[in-house]
Amino acid sequence: MKVNYYKDETIKENHIDVFYQTINPEVSGIIDYLSTYDMILGKKDTVTKKIFPSEIYYLEIVERRCYAYLEHEVYQIDYNLKSFMDCFCGKGFLQIGKSILVNAYKLDKIKTDLNMKMRLFMSNGEILILNRSYKKSFMEYLKKLQEVADETIE
Asked: Which terminus in the chain has less CB density within 10 A, N or C?
């Protein structure tokens, strides 16, 4: 891969452009790395904290407020589910219920439940319920992730 660095003192804001022919493991890794610099501000009591999307296990709307659940903490963020998905849909987040998004990269295992629902076991020990109306899109997304992982292995 060819990398070019340019210094331009006339630009008003630093920026990085990534050109690629196809997404391969190398390009995917660079995109993932750069996406870790996206940041959200979370509020908890009188504390405001920088949160990176990769730290979020799931998001939930409760009483018209959006909460980001991290490994051991919960912060209120200034998003609704639609605006969060518009910004971060390519980062592994997908909807599993009317008021909840999950980070697919934080899943530990999935277990079939009653009434065509599924239990999602998160790597921090939390258990979420996948609503059956979101099951098809959820499974398709996981299948795409698996295909990308298989391409990376080869």
From this structure: C
